[in-house]
Specification:
With 188 residues, this protein is of the alpha+beta class. The protein has a single domain, classed as Jann2411-like fold. 48% of the residues lie in helices and 13% in strands. The chain has a two-stranded antiparallel ribbon. Strands 3-4 form a two-stranded antiparallel sheet. The structure holds zinc ion (ZN). Zinc ion (ZN) binds next to loops. It comes from Paenibacillus aestuarii.
Length: 188
């Protein structure tokens, strides 16, 4: 499962295959374009350098807080204040949307700025906290990857972002490490 805030945090990309290559996708116009389109948000593209700097700081702290909470930590007052400050950068207007029985009140982001985007990301994360879903936050156990995701399995046993990719890779690595250890033992 992907959410607005995990998608945002994952703009800090690490090559899961272990090449050591990282990519700060936040700075890429192509990423900005795809991200805003996907979550129905708008802001100037390319983002200004000042905006990027603020967004990077925000992402770093969000990453840290998500990691702390996923390990059972509690949210401090300072974290609350920080989230509130981020959310105060956005404005919401209410609109009637849908037809007939689908008619509903929709809250629409009012500003087409990166501060609005940050407010939306912060609000999405706040929603995760309110719903008590922080225990499901995972950082992929492949240390090269660190992709953040929700563990949506019943028993909360999901360890890798993708079993076919990181899961398999780690299986192969464990297998090779075992073979190597055996070979050393046989030769010794
Ligand atoms: Zn992974």
């Amino acid at each position: 499962m992907e959410s607005l805030w995990t998608d945002f945090v994952n703009s800090d990309y690490h090559d899961w295959r272990g090449s050591g290559r990282s990519e700060n996708r936040l700075v890429l116009s192509s990423w900005q374009h795809a991200f805003l389109g996907k979550w129905c948000l708008s802001a100037p593209i390319p983002a200004l350098e000042d905006d990027i700097r603020v967004l990077e700081q925000f992402r770093g702290r969000l990453q840290q807080l998500a990691a702390d909470l996923s390990e059972g930590g509690a949210m401090a007052q300072a974290d609350r204040d920080w989230l509130n400050a981020a959310m105060s950068g956005g404005l919401i207007t209410r609109q009637l949307a849908g037809e007939g029985s689908e008619l509903h009140l929709s809250m629409v982001p009012a500003k087409q700025e990166w501060t609005q985007v940050m407010a939306e990301v912060a609000a999405d994360f706040a929603g995760t906290v309110i719903e008590g879903e922080t225990v499901r936050i995972r950082f992929c156990e492949n240390s090269d990857c660190r992709w953040v995701f929700y563990d949506d399995t019943r028993n909360r046993t999901k360890r890798y972002c993708d079993d076919k990719m990181c899961g398999n890779l780690m299986k192969v690595r464990r297998f090779r490490a075992k073979k190597k250890a055996e070979a050393i033992k046989d030769n010794g």
